[in-house]
Amino acid sequence: MKTVCKQNLCTGCMACADICSHKAINVAVDIMTCNAVIDEKLCVDCGVCYKVCQINHPVLCVSPIRWYQGWSNDEKVRENSASGGFATEIAKAFILQGGTVFACIFEKGVFAYWAFHSIEDLKNMAGSKYVKSNPSGIYKKVRTELLAGQEVLFIGLPCHIAGLKNFLNEKGKENLYCVDLICHGSPAPQLLEMFLEQRKICLQDIQEIRFRRKDHFQVEQKTLSEFNSVGFKGVLDTYMIGFLEGLFYTENCYACSYARLERVSDITLGDSWGSDLPLEEQRKGISLALCQTPKGEHLLKMANLQLYPVDLEKAKMHNHQLMAPSEMTVQRQRFFEGISKGNSFDAMIWRTCFVKCAKQIIKKVLIKSNLYRK
Question: What's the pTM?
Fold first, then answer.
């Protein structure tokens, strides 16, 4: 198998597949790995895919010059956001200034990037998405907007921003603003499908999905007008147990070159875990923002945000991805071997994360007995 970069290190950014005019590259995402595979029958050895690859040609990362914590001044925006609403407010302000926003959405069972031109559409952007998204085709759309003189804001994972920067030439880049999200790692969507299938739920049939509400982590689907937990409300489900334990990300995530303080974007957004602000505000959600460039400062200043100073060392301590990638657990191989042998998703989570699962069963019993508040 001939691949664009070293086997199993591919981030799945899709830049190589998008730039290949001969359609010679297939970015194959299986449950364990991601690889950009070259079809040698179609390849003409032009080398463009190699040059655009961020693994072969790393993108410049720079240290933050400012760091803040805070939240949206709009209580509704803050309430509907996983954290404090920074991404939504920055996107709203950018659109009001006449710009175009690109960000990830969930639609018809697919996590993909979309162009937002109106504030009304931004409701589809909100929320954390703990699954690998697909940026295929979006880089060309960003380039078209930039070459037309349009200002563009791209909100996404750092590896996708790196893919975009390598995909673009210098022309039009002065109108590009980038916001990256602090990322633990991303599992293949097939694993989410396995988890849901055990509950007789088809991912393609879900109207909306979310993975957390503030500090409550659960897979929830929207039915009619409200979200309902896929599992037992108030208890970590098996998907979130595996995710938070770092059990089943694709292999490249454990060697992520963007899990450090130096960043690839104008602004980095995450949660201000361990904040010294009042507990009441923490419960409502507090965002963290690392600002790397004057463009980033401009984005923050024009948004409807309440900003406070933050202790950078404390922020790093509570966001380990600002220092190093997630570590590959010793149980990861056992999990995937069990899945490959036909064992169910839940069964393999129990076998590899038994203590965590048992604690959640105890919690469930306590909730049912009204001895624990959800």
Answer: 0.95
